[in-house]
Amino acid sequence: MQNKQVSEILNLKEEKNAVILAHSYQPPEIQDIADHVGDSLQLSRIAASTESGVIVFCGVRFMAETAHILSPDKTVLLPEPDAGCPLADCIEVPALRSMQELYPDALTVLYVNSPADVKAESYACCTSANALEVVESVPSDEIIFAPDRNLGTFISRKSDKTFHIWNGACRSHAIADLQDMKVRMKEWPDAELLVHPETPPEAWELAHAVLGTGGMIRYIGESNAERFIIGTEEGMIYRLKTLYPDREFTAGGNIYCINMKMITLQKILDSLRELKPVIELDPQTREKAYAAVARMTKATG
Ligand code: 13P
């Protein structure tokens, strides 16, 4: 039986013509009520194409901002306005401009985990799912990659282009506990270890594959393994168990993002009732950021 809070959310969603989008790191009860659960790229695509007038974004601020950049005529709600991203906070416009002055021939590829005004100063955005494709599509052999140094390093090893990499990191993935991964591998010797490219290179060396969350889902679908150790934010375990009830999953590396856990059912309910907090950007920033985000969506069809 649905609890009262959930049925109220579902009723209000109909009444307000809203769609609920949730990142795969969100808590189980949020994933369960969402219309779509996905990675950053999938959710951006859905935000760009939805017919709903209201998008309730269950994730962190840069994700909701990207939805607003792509769909400025929709009302984008972030039920907890303080759900931020320490990686996005690693970069600001003046510092990026200084780096761009140092490397005038380079074009900037910016991970979407970044503020909107920095997107506005970049050539193209990317996510972990399409970073290599975006880098290869950019009309320069010299790239400034920001703000995640681990994703930048991972992609630079796969590309012949010259990279200048920003020294930022995800506070949760960058300190992944490698010892914990090794212990899990000993406990489950038949399992495959999948890690996110925001983890450090030492984790990639242990892993069977280095993938964003959408890539992990596809990889598991094609793998013959029955057990998997997942080296990304632990919310992903619930997502994988839902998608693959016949396989076994355990988290590896103790990767936990406190910001991803700030949204609650009550906050979604309040947000739908009051239609706030609304994500807003000044139109000039939004339009300039749109150019960078659109190059990302174009590069990957
Ligand atoms: P995805 O690109 O797999 O959605 O990951 C986003 C993210 O924020 C990782 O920390």
Structural description of this entry:
It is a single chain. The protein has 301 residues and is α/β, with parallel strands linked by helices. It folds into 3 domains: 2-84 and 260-280, 3-Layer(aba) Sandwich (Rossmann fold); 87-170 and 287-298, Rossmann fold, CATH 3.40.50.10800; 177-254, Rossmann fold (3-Layer(aba) Sandwich), CATH 3.40.50.10800. Helix content is 43%, strand content 16%. The chain is built from 14 helices and 12 strands. The protein has helices spanning 4-15, 28-33, 40-49, 61-70, 93-102, 116-119, 131-137, 149-156, 178-187, 201-206, 213-222, 235-243, 265-274, 283-299, and strands at 18-23, 36-38, 54-58, 75-77, 107-111, 124-126, 142-146, 162-165, 192-195, 209-210, 227-231, 248-251. The chain has a 4-stranded parallel sheet with strand order 2-1-3-4, sandwiched between helices. Strand 9 (192-195), helix 10 and strand 10 form a beta-alpha-beta unit. Helix 4 (61-70) packs across helix 14 (283-299). The longest helix is centred in the C-terminal third of the chain and has 17 residues, at 283-299. It is globular. The N and C termini lie far apart (41 Å). The mean pLDDT is 97. The structure holds 1,3-dihydroxyacetonephosphate (13P). 1,3-dihydroxyacetonephosphate is lined by residues 39-40, 113, 127-129, 170, 173, 196, 198, 212-214.
